[in-house]
Amino acid sequence: MSRRKGASKGRRPAATSRPAAPGPAPLAPGAPCPCGLARYEDCCGRFHRGAAAPASAEELMRSRYAAFAVRDAAYLRRTWHPGTRPARLDLAGPSRWTGLEILATTGGSAFHSEGTVTFRAHWTDGDGRFGTQEERSRFVRVDGAWVYLDGAVA
Ligand SMILES: [Zn+2]
Fold first, then answer.
1. Which end of the chain is more exposed for a tag (fewer CB within 10 A), N or C?
2. Is there a domain that residue 10 lies in?
3. How far apart are CA 114 and CA 116, in angstroms?
């Protein structure tokens, strides 16, 4: 997921005059992970806090989705390939990520050095508008660690 404003299949959040949402939004202890797999601290939270590293491209994809959801820009930057990492990352905005579906993967395991993950992310803007964004993301290893290279809107 490279940016919040990819082409959406549904209605996009309209340009808003509301103030931007505040920065990092920590989850309560025991809260479910935004990626939907497990408790946040046992799931993507351990990657966000640096206690573990994703072992597969899909784990990295999930953790990056969760980082968008909790607005962890630092994590997104450090899991972005240095060649494609944006100079500035603005996570503020009216929409909220509400769910993730992994649609397909290629490569990306412990035995690969690259992989792709195709996913559908759901958003809402809190004003009754909602939609999805689909992307096929490419991941590679840099010094053994999975990083996000780029993505194409599916
Ligand atoms: Zn997770």
1. C
2. no
3. 7
